């Protein structure tokens, strides 16, 4: 029948997806697995029999077991939970799972069972961690550089300045955010500055210019500034990364 065919297609879709649907029965304060969708074995190698009688907790990464037990407590307390943790597959490899579950209660408000979904987010989690580590290396590199480095928008408003620039400006890096570079330039230089960064393109994103900076309460300073335009997927300039050669 059409209903049976649709059900079979749904089963095949679930079995081949990176998601596992599960049911846990409430029993005297514990949540015991009673059902996993067919995608459990292709994804993790386990069967329902491998996960009952407390065995499931043994597959949780040792560093994440507190998260797992807190997940159970929150689910019983609040009725909803969403957690990320690592779970070992039958081959000994760990998968990052996004676990979202809801607790079902009877007419008297007593817990009956939990219905939930595991979604394998290993690739996304590892990619995010690589980005975080890359950003940390970049931050250290920028902060340790003797050059003055900043980022600013096309309307010349600073979004970041490193410590050497802040030290020269006699402020903290946080205080640089929001400053408009145009305030340090004459009207003529400001117009030329905006025209120059307007010529940056994804094909030619680099520019070098010697400009005269007028700092509050100081004499004029000539700086050599090297700019690099940062563009979105449509080729629109969204930000400029600037490196200043320290003044003598």
Summarize the topology.
Layout: H1 2-15, E1 19-27, E2 30-36, H2 40-44, H3 48-51, H4 55-58, H5 65-78, E3 80-88, E4 94-105, E5 111-120, H6 122-144, E6 148-152, E7 158-161, H7 163-168, H8 173-176, H9 187-198, E8 206-214, E9 220-231, E10 237-244
Antiparallel strand pairs: 1-2, 1-5, 3-4, 4-5, 6-7, 6-10, 8-9, 9-10
Describe the structure.
It is a single chain. This protein is an alpha+beta fold. It has two domains: 2-126, Beta-Lactamase; 145-245, Beta-Lactamase. Helices cover 35% and strands 34% of the residues. It has helices at 2-15, 40-44, 48-51, 55-58, 65-78, 122-144, 163-168, 173-176, 187-198, and strands spanning 19-27, 30-36, 80-88, 94-105, 111-120, 148-152, 158-161, 206-214, 220-231, 237-244. Strands 2-1-5-4-3 form a five-stranded antiparallel sheet, sandwiched between helices. The protein has a five-stranded antiparallel sheet with strand order 7-6-10-9-8. The radius of gyration is 28 Å and the shape is elongated. The model has no long low-confidence stretch (mean pLDDT 84).
Structure summary:
With 248 residues, this protein is α+β, with helices and mostly antiparallel strands.
